[in-house]
Design a protein that fits this description.
Blueprint: H1 9-15, H2 20-31, E1 69-75, H3 87-93, E2 95-101, H4 106-113, E3 122-126, H5 130-134, H6 156-159, E4 176-182, E5 184-188, E6 209-212, H7 215-225, H8 235-249, E7 252-256, H9 259-268, E8 273-277, H10 279-285, E9 290-293, E10 301-307, H11 315-325, H12 328-338, E11 341-342, H13 353-356, H14 364-370, H15 386-397
Parallel strand pairs: 1-2, 1-3, 6-7, 6-8
Antiparallel strand pairs: 3-10, 4-10, 4-11, 5-8, 5-9
Helix pairs in contact: 2-12, 7-8, 8-15, 9-10
């Protein structure tokens, strides 16, 4: 959702949409160069040193077996199977994913608030919404680095949780980051070529714009476009945010209930652009002409994470799944498939050139400083809370 202040829009648009299958193959080929433990020899040298006499007779430790079985999953569509890019890993784990897809992150909070979360093993959600899950007492089970060894490979900005959104007070993980990216405008490049939110009010977009009905996304994106922090939005700034959104909403063909609906509308040509898009939408359509641009006004970043509820029936299998998704070759393959960015340092050289050109991995701190990972309205020190934004948003949707 956010990042190009460091890259030219033309390079970004040209890079997004077509390398998924090739890059998955590249990552798989790279994975084939690893030994049976998944480790690589950076030097290419062999170890001819004599065995340690104290350990020569000790057998090599057997890798821990996966718990296997069923994993009941609730989260974003696609973050379970990644177009099959993680199929070999799922097979090796011996797991079956029973998936329920959410339309927006609020679905998770509502599921647990209504008592329907018992037995869920794995959640995927967006980090900027972390407060609504923490507000439901006892929902998330802390995850230690011993339980998910591949956490050691996280890029520093994620491993150190510089967003202060992913860990609990003890330093254990409530959300394990596996992908990130920007919000922007996803569009059919054969029909339109937007570079700004202002472009969306032009006549050629009338009745041809898709908007996902995800209020949390919109308060963050619109606030960023106006130079505000959604977490500290004042009532006066809220009025400006709604007025910014109003003419864009007036162009909408439909307020879509989910991103899956947006993908279908883009693929069918019923809409020419989506406000609140991201590169993965184009990957889902499998149409190389569906691209994503990050608007001139500025935008925000999202970091998507896995969590395990405290009431999980198969916690160990969920841990095994998360660890597998953080394997460098696997993480490169799944993020190439979605045209999104990796959180794993060793995955970067395994990614396609088109994908890595989108993201300034050499200076992510500067990137996130310009395109922040925001939180939702906090309601402190005179700022609005999320309920107040929902009320204003609902009035906008109703035509008020």
């Amino acid at each position: 959702m956010l990042l190009a202040l460091l890259l030219a829009f033309s390079m970004i648009a040209a890079s997004c949409g077509s390398d998924g299958a090739d890059s998955v193959t590249e990552a798989a080929d790279d994975a084939a160069t690893t030994d049976d433990t998944g480790a690589t020899d950076d030097t290419g040298a062999t170890d001819d040193s004599p065995p340690d006499p104290e350990s020569a007779d000790e057998p090599d430790p057997e890798p821990a077996a996966s718990a296997g079985g069923e994993i009941d999953y609730l989260g974003w569509e696609g973050y379970d199977t990644f177009f099959g890019a993680n199929g070999a890993e799922i097979e090796a784990l011996g797991v079956t994913l029973n998936a329920t897809y959410m339309a927006s992150p609020a679905d998770i909070a509502q599921r647990f608030a209504s008592g329907g979360g018992d037995g869920l093993d794995l959640l995927s959600w967006t980090s900027a919404n972390h407060q609504q899950y923490r507000s439901i007492e006892g929902v998330l089970s802390p995850i230690t680095e011993e339980e998910v060894p591949n956490l050691a490979g996280l890029i520093a900005v994620f491993g150190e949780d510089r967003f202060e959104q992913l860990k609990d007070a003890n330093g254990d993980w409530l959300g394990v980051p596996f992908t990130f990216g920007p919000l922007g405008i996803t569009y059919d490049s054969t029909q339109v070529s937007p570079t700004s939110y202002a472009d969306l009010v032009a006549p050629e977009y009338e009745g041809k714009l898709g908007i996902p009905d995800v209020p949390g996304l919109h308060v963050q994106a619109a606030s960023a476009a106006l130079g505000y922090d959604a977490n500290t939005l004042t009532p006066e700034q809220l009025d400006e945010v709604i007025e910014f959104m109003r003419p864009i909403w007036g162009q909408a063909r439909v307020l879509s209930p989910s991103f899956g609906d947006i993908i279908g509308l883009l693929a069918s040509g019923e809409i020419v652009a989506a406000y609140g898009g991201y590169p993965g939408l184009g990957a889902f359509t499998e149409n190389p002409d569906i691209l994503t641009v990050f608007p001139e006004e500025g935008t925000i970043s999202f970091v998507d994470v896995y969590s395990i509820p405290t009431g999980a029936d198969n916690r160990q299998a969920a841990l095994d799944f998360i660890n597998a998704m953080l394997d460098p070759a696997t993480n490169a393959a799944i993020n190439d498939a979605f045209a999104q960015a990796t959180t794993i340092e060793a995955s970067i050289p395994l990614m396609s050139d088109a994908n890595t050109a989108l993201y300034p991995y050499d200076d992510l701190d500067a990137f996130f400083a310009e395109n922040s990972v925001m939180t939702l309205p906090g309601g402190e020190d005179g700022a609005i809370n999320m309920g107040q934004f929902i009320d204003a948003y609902s009035a906008l949707v109703a035509g008020g």
